[in-house]
Amino acid sequence: MVNAKTRQSTPEYNTTKHVTYVTNRLKILLHYSKYISNSNIPCCNCCGENSHVDFLDIDHIAGKNQMDSEHELIQLDYSSKLRGKGLIHWIIDNNYPDGFQILCHNCNVAKGLIGNNNTCTHETIRLEQTFDDMTAHSSFEL
Ligand SMILES: [Zn+2]
Ligand SMILES: [Zn+2]
Known about the structure:
Blueprint: H1 4-8, H2 11-37, E1 56-60, H3 71-75, H4 84-93, E2 100-104, H5 105-112, H6 121-137
Antiparallel strand pairs: 1-2
The chain binds zinc ion (2 copies).
Residues 46-47, 107, 110, 120, 122 line the site of one zinc ion (ZN).
């Protein structure tokens, strides 16, 4: 007799579990890249990084903790404690709820830095450039 514990530690069992995890994660990366970035391949919604899914992450747009107070997510039993496999299962079980995007690790970390107000530094640079362009092309005399 093989008991459940023995079965769960076999390489076959672990490989199957890992394949399920990778497949589910890829489904989520594809879904939000298509839905939010209009891209057929997984990519970062901020900088467009798309060279490999290992560089990408599922990001809570509003910030992890703010999402705990969002009514629609609370109804779906969302918790900021969900991460990794737990988060992946929750997203799929709840049919890809709004509130998530795909970011690369760089953008995700920059967005989470204290003082960045949940905005990636790229966004700040883009805003500055837009402002510079506007100033450069402005017909107003300063
Ligand atoms: Zn990025
Ligand atoms: Zn960025």
